[in-house]
């Protein structure tokens, strides 16, 4: 496994994929910019939007960087970089890594990293890649019809919130029990992040001057949770 995750071939394949994604994004940025100009939006307004978008993307992306360092200890640099740069998420990747670790008989992801064979790591790669694509397989044939059917009714605005809320509850039902009952330190970190997120949400809603915090709730709560992990490890270890 360690030979594969540090191999030049995997690095080359990941770089090719990332270059494609960046090129794809730039093409559509140009298309969007041109369309805005056709609609009469001034260059000054567009520059202002682009600048604000860049600024408000930096801090939330810190949570991804923190997640990258956490995932590196399990999957190595290259594969972690690929998963969190394109379509993966730290919670999904960590859950898959932990599940596969238990299924193939290792005590921890760190032990798997040291001792797993290439075949076993191939199982991890397939599950992470194919499992995450299942949503796209549903959206390709049905996504447009579902979107249009929701927008047709007068109750569309209400149903949008109901559907999104149901989706989030399903995610909580899957991940929260794993985090809350799997390990004491893990549960303490999750609760710490939750408290930080709620506190920031209250501050952002109560004070107009602090409304900008709503853009960074995920980043700050994740960073706070990661820092608290040091304290919880000392207390419970």
Task: Please sum up the structure shown.
The chain has 237 residues and is mainly α. The chain is built from ten helices and no strands.
Structural commentary:
The chain is mainly alpha-helical. Helix content is 86%, strand content 0%. The longest helix is centred in the middle third of the chain and has 35 residues, at 118-152. The chain starts with a helix and ends with a helix. The model has no long low-confidence stretch (mean pLDDT 81).
Q: Which SSEs are present, and which pair or pack?
A:
Blueprint lengths: L1 H4 L2 H31 L4 H33 L1 H10 L3 H14 L5 H7 L2 H35 L3 H27 L1 H23 L10 H20 L1
Helix pairs in contact: 2-4, 3-4, 3-5, 3-10, 5-7, 8-9, 9-10
Strand content: under 5%
How confident overall, as mean pLDDT? 81
Largest sheet: none
Class of secondary structure makeup: mainly alpha
Radius of gyration: 21 Å
Number of E-type strands: 0
| Distinct helical segment count | 10
Q: Helix fraction?
A: over 70%
Shape: globular
What is the N-to-C order of secondary-structure elements (H for helix, E for strand)? HHHHHHHHHH
How far from one another are the termini? 29 Å
Low-confidence stretches: none
């Amino acid at each position: 496994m360690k030979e594969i995750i540090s191999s030049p071939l995997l690095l080359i394949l990941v770089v090719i994929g990332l270059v494609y994604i960046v090129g794809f994004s730039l093409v559509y940025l140009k298309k969007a910019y041109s369309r805005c100009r056709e609609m009469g939006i001034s260059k000054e307004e567009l520059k202002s939007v682009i600048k604000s978008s860049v600024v408000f993307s930096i801090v939330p992306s810190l949570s991804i960087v923190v997640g990258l360092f956490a995932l590196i200890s399990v999957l190595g640099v290259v594969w972690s970089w690929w998963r969190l740069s394109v379509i993966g998420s730290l919670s999904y990747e960590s859950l898959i890594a932990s599940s596969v670790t238990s299924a193939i008989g290792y005590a921890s992801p760190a032990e798997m990293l040291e001792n797993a064979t290439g075949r076993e790591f191939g199982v991890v790669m397939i599950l992470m890649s194919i499992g995450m694509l299942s949503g796209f397989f549903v959206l390709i044939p049905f996504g447009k019809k579902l979107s249009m059917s929701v927008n047709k009714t007068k109750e569309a605005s209400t149903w949008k919130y109901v559907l999104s809320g149901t989706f989030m509850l399903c995610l909580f039902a899957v991940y929260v029990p794993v985090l809350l009952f799997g390990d004491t330190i893990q549960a303490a970190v999750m609760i710490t992040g939750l408290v930080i997120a709620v506190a920031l949400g209250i501050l952002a809603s109560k004070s107009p001057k602090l409304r900008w915090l709503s853009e960074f709730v995920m980043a700050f709560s994740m960073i706070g949770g990661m820092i608290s992990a040091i304290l919880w490890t000392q207390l419970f270890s």
